[in-house]
Amino acid sequence: MEKTELTPKQIVAELNKYIVGQSEAKKSVSIALRNRWRRKRLSEDMQDEIIPKNILLIGPTGVGKTEIARRLAKLVGAPFIKVEATKYTEVGYVGRDVEQMIRDLVANAIRMVQEQESQRYEEKAEEEANKRILQVFWPKKSIKEKVKNPMDVFFSSDDDEEDTPEEPKQLEEPKSDRRQKMFEDICAHKMDDREIEVEVAEQNQGFQGILTGNSTEELTNNFQEMLGSIMPKKKKKKKMTVAKAREIFKEEELEKCLDMDIIVDKAIEATEESGIVFIDEFDKIAEKGHANGPDVSREGVQRDILPIVEGATVNTKYGPVKTDHILFIAAGAFHVSKPSDLIPELQGRFPIRVELQSLTVDDFRRILTEPNQSLVKQYKALLETDGVTLEFTDDGIDAIAEYAYRVNLETENIGARRLHTILEKILEDVAYEAPDIDEKHIVVNKGFVSGKLNDVVQNVDLSHYIL
């Protein structure tokens, strides 16, 4: 599942396609990932002793902390989950149990393995789905229906094998040939727009929502699944297009092909060996000096997280999962608190500390243009669907970058997310009028940007609300 044969330099090169700057953070995560590849090539005794070097990313919001972790997991095909530390509470308080992050990680791994296994059987499932569609158009009689005398089975002719479809009879062509031609048309999607009536399974909706609240979330899901497996699925007839019927039949055929026991085993192994948990807002549970009120459980949350990061066994509905070799990446701004405010035991479990830098004007300029599917490319593509061609000049890009940097400096620093708010403001009128305007070529230069933003940026109080 995991493509950890990538070298650290190759990993950084891939991350550079999507994330600007932050070379130290990229270097750290690439080494952590490569160490997994190195560990698997050691003896079993040595493998058990080597634990992941968890990473603590320190830096303001919007500088790429989450994106680095997410892209890293996607790059190597590892199970990944992003959680926020503030959503968890100490055991005994109302709120999420910290073990839920591992259960959610396993659930993501199950989905990943299911998708991979489904790809293996996709062609077979589609063929079976097409056969079921053919059976609706031109049903074959079963042996029980056709044969009254047991000896008749030895004398049945080819023409007796199926019922004739609701089509004009073509006596000059054998029925089997016509049936085969219809099957070929179905496979070639030539009949996708035709409407047919098929039997589909009804979803059991009656028991949903019996239990609510985060504290009973896992119990609720398990209870619903248990009832769903006990209650027989009712069938009902529905009219739909051949294309829609093929999707439904294909899903049903895939379910028959997939072995859930094998999927669960692979998913648990992938979670234990390759899983990545990204814990955001880690600084919010590190604040000191609070003795009562809503902050009373913050140190308790740290103590609950500690055994999971150290290596524990978490019970999930798919079975026990060991966390010894899961990579944990924690992140926080640490404006008010410091990493040293964390309990000492937890500090020791995040030995790699990386401080991410605030974005400069040059960083903003590069973010706008360099990454794959950059913001400028996205907006060009969106408006091109209405026939509008956007042209961003160099001085226009520079102006957007400078405004983003200035607003971040004078108001709240939200990093690269500021570019989204500024571009939306600049292109608001164009996006609104795009389907109707005669002038389909829009040049976004310095004058265009200044005309849209100057008044707002000059008024700092207004910037707080608009940008």
Polypeptide structure, described:
- With 467 residues, this protein is α/β, with parallel strands linked by helices.
- It has 3 domains: 203 residues, Rossmann fold (3-Layer(aba) Sandwich); 136 residues, no CATH class; 97 residues, Orthogonal Bundle (Helicase, Ruva Protein, domain 3), CATH 1.10.8.60.
- It contains 20 helices and 11 strands.
- A hairpin with a 2-residue loop joins strand 6 and strand 7.
- The protein is flat.
- About 5% of the residues have low confidence.
- Belongs to the ClpX chaperone family. HslU subfamily.
- It is found in: Cytoplasm.
Would you tell me which CATH topology of the largest domain applies? Answer: Rossmann fold
| Share in helix | 40-55%
Strand content: 5-15%
Distance between the termini: 42 Å
Instruction: Give the mean pLDDT.
Output: 81
Strand order of the largest sheet: 2-5-8-1-9
Secondary structure category: alpha/beta
Query: What Rg, in angstroms, do the CA atoms define?
Result: 30 Å
Reported for the largest beta sheet, the result is: 5 strands, parallel
Poorly predicted runs of 5 or more residues: 150-161, 204-215
CATH class of the largest domain: Alpha Beta
- Tell me, briefly, the overall form: flat
In total, the number of strands is 11
DSSP helical segment count: 20
Could you name the CATH homologous superfamily of the largest domain? P-loop containing nucleotide triphosphate hydrolases
CATH architectural name of the largest domain: 3-Layer(aba) Sandwich
